[in-house]
Amino acid sequence: MEHQVEIILNEHIQNMQLLRSSDYSKVLAKISNEIIRCLKNGNKILIAGNGGSASDAQHFAGEMVGRFLLERSAFSAIALNTDTSVITCIGNDYSFDEVFSRQVDGIGKSGDIFIGISTSGNSKNIINAVESAKMRDMKTICFLGKDGGKLKKISQLNLIIPFEKTARIQEAHILAIHTICELVEKEMVK
C-alpha cells in the first residue's frame, strides 16, 4: 500500500512539473487579469461544473465571496450548480443540458464572466452555458482536461490540463483556482 501511495504522489509531482514547462502560467495570468477587470467594473463571475467539477466551482465561488488569504470585501461570484431547486426545476421542465444556460440567461449580463469546468471538455450543459454567455456578451473561460474537447473550440480563454486521469486534471484545476484567487486578491486589495 505504501508503494502505491508513492506511485500516486510521484505521478502528481511529474504532472505538476509538466505544467511548469507549458503555457499554464501565462494562461493563469490571463484568467486572473480578466477576473480582476470584471470585478473592478462591478460585474460578476458565474461558475459551473458537474460532479467533482461542481465541487471545484463551489470552492472557487466560496474563495471569491468569502476570502482566500486576505481580509477584504466580498467579490461577486456564484456557483450555478449549488441551487438544487433551480437545477431540478430546469432539469425537469427543460433538460439537464439546460441547467446552467438557463441560469446564465436569467442572471448573466454583458461584462460578466462565465467559467465552465469540465475535465472532458464535452459536458453538454457547460457547452450550452458557454453559448448562452457569448450571446450576452460575457467573457467565457473554461478549465478543461485531456485535449480540451468541444469546449476548447467555443470558449474564449481555456486552461487545458493535458492529463488523461480525471483525478490529476482536477488536482491541477484546484491549483489553478487557488493561484487565481491569490493573484486576484493581491491585486484587488492594493
Count of helical regions: 8
How can the largest sheet be summarized?
5 strands, parallel
- Which strand order spans the largest sheet, edge to edge or round the barrel? 2-1-3-4-5
Can you give the mean pLDDT?
95
Helix fraction bin: 55-70%
Low-pLDDT stretches: none
| H/E element sequence | HHEHEHHEHEHEH
Distance between the termini: 47 Å
Strand content: 5-15%
Write down the overall geometry. Answer: globular
What is the structure about, briefly put?
With 190 residues, this protein is α/β, with parallel strands linked by helices.
What does this structure look like?
The chain is of the alpha/beta class. The protein contains eight helices and five strands. The chain has a five-stranded parallel beta sheet with strand order 2-1-3-4-5. The chain starts with a helix and ends with a helix.
Keywords:
190 residues, alpha/beta, 5-stranded parallel sheet, 8 helices, 5 strands, 14% strand, globular
Task: Record the SSE blueprint.
Blueprint: H1 2-20, H2 24-40, E1 45-49, H3 52-65, E2 77-79, H4 84-93, H5 101-107, E3 113-118, H6 124-135, E4 139-145, H7 151-154, E5 157-161, H8 166-188
Parallel strand pairs: 1-2, 1-3, 3-4, 4-5
Helix pairs in contact: 2-8, 3-8, 5-6
